[in-house]
Write the structure tokens for this entry.
Amino acid sequence: MNRTVLLSTFLAIVFFSSSHALPRFALGQKDKCISCHVNPTGGLIRNESGFFFGKNVVSMISPRDEDFKLSPKLSESVLFGFDYRSQFMYSEELKKTDFMDMTGSVYLSAGLAPTIDVIARYDFVQRIWEGYGVARILPNESYIKAGSFVPYFGLRLDDHTAYTRGGDYGLLFSKGIAQGLIYNPLYIEAGIEIGANLADNLLLTASVGKPKSHSVFAFDPTYTARLEYSPVIENIQFTLGGSYASTKTNLFTEVLNTNLSGGFAGFGYKRFTLMGEYDIAKDYLANGTTTKALMIEATYNVLVGLDAVVRYDKLETGLSTGDTKFAHLILGVEFFPYSFVEARPQYRINYAGDDKKGSFVLQFHFWY
């Protein structure tokens, strides 16, 4: 594996993470993403319940002094929030250590009516933004979303080095080098999404939009659909579903008609959660290729404020030259010592073909 590829991988892990909701929190709490977020599909700004969860539930110590009051409210109908992540990393192959910014986002949410919200995010590190309105005006609290947002596909992890998300998406932006699916940290569409609550535990979403990166994506719209069933059976929270997306990507002078499909499943029981996703992308990295991405993650809540996490990611590019198979094995913990503070030490074993290298990562996360 040449040094350019390794540097690309290193930079990918250093720079990119996100502020999406963690699906395992929903599984562990036997709840839905919308219970903690203004966005019906999770992520971005937290509502008052999500703020309370970050302040008092997930943290080991929280400020409970009555004279020290915290609130995400700027006014009765306006919420404020932010996420900031930085990271220290040591790469065994590069023999390099570094501290770097990853992401820093500020959020605003304004309730224009009891069923209508406007949400905005600006990432001052990556210089990207989202902004959209959500109107929960359809039957059974179903909604319409319009604006600039990330389409709903698969499980939204907050670590985009998973190959079901952006993978090892480095600064070279070159396709086929340990890259995951299209949902890298910079991927946003301008369009419309409809979410239909078909039953209490059954959500169907469908969206159409134009990706903002015209250097990679053609001007034709992208279509995305996702179906999720999340029942609670005998005190166990399950999730099961599938996703589909159709887009056109530019590969040099060639336009690829890319189709992505996959399924996901998971369950949460007491302190343990297990979830996985498997996706297939046709004509993604080259015409006639089939790219496969896998993610499996297990977590165990050791005690309040401390979770053990193991994740395995695998990518088969479907290309005929170079390294065609990549994998990560991630061993770590997520430590929440105080409200809105997280430290995430990880040891990563990175596989590329027959090559195996390790790295140590320590992420710092502050939010509100």
Q: What stands out?
A: Confidence is low (pLDDT under 50) at residues 1-20, 170-176. The longest strand covers residues 96-113.
